[in-house]
Amino acid sequence: MKNTYLTGGLVKRAPLPPHQVTAGQHVRVAFNERRLVRVLAVTAAVLVVVGFWSIYSVRFLPDFFAREMVWSLTYLNGETNLPALFSTLNLLLTAAILGMIAVVKRNVHDPFARTWTGLALLAAYLGVDEGASLHEKLIEPVQKLIRLDGIFHYAWVVPYGLLALTVLVVCLRFLRHLPPGIRNAMILSGALYVTGAFGLELVEGYVQTHMGRDSFWMEILIACEEALEMAGVILLIGTLLRYIRLYLPGMEVRLGVQDSSGPRPG
Known about the structure:
By secondary structure, this protein is mainly alpha-helical. Helix content is 66%, strand content 5%. The radius of gyration is 22 Å and the shape is globular. It starts with a strand and ends in a 19-residue tail after the last helix. Residues 5-16 and 18-23 have low confidence and may be disordered.
């Protein structure tokens, strides 16, 4: 079976108007996780290529119609634009999938149910962080606290790096219990994300200190950083859906609608 199913059930006791779903009827939505991952990967590749091209065009090409608008919409290190929205939605989708797995694990009293829940909350926070750029707001206070520069110019990497190390240590036992294929894919997805988010951010700090923010090398590093982050999250989404398909084949998500108005007076 190559499809992952989400089933929504609607429950309503009152008579239903024409063309409305009848009581007890289920709406079954099936999707192929490989196809979903392919769509996400192609979208990410297009955003990275177009984003880098827009940077190149602003720096080296003559002005053309809507050049600045295209740049603002596709700049890979920007906020409230297409790459930021795509990355935010991917992280929130990851959080939703992890949350659904966590609910199933709690229902069967799995010893790692809390770990699944913690990972869901972490992914949700990273999604909010991506959308609101919360980590960048830590740069100034951390720099004032411990006066960092060079590779630590973007000082948010210090508290977030400690957080990443803590998560890794806490999850070691959890990772060991996973099936080998799932475990290896999750480790690879985490390595890609951390390499982009932290590793290249350290290099960017060095370039910022010694070459300045406007260096074209900085733009290349930003493009690579965003590509690695997107690749890591997309790989994790595919891995989680494969885990559901292979190891939670009976998993269903049901959406119930009930009349909460209570009994009416006679």
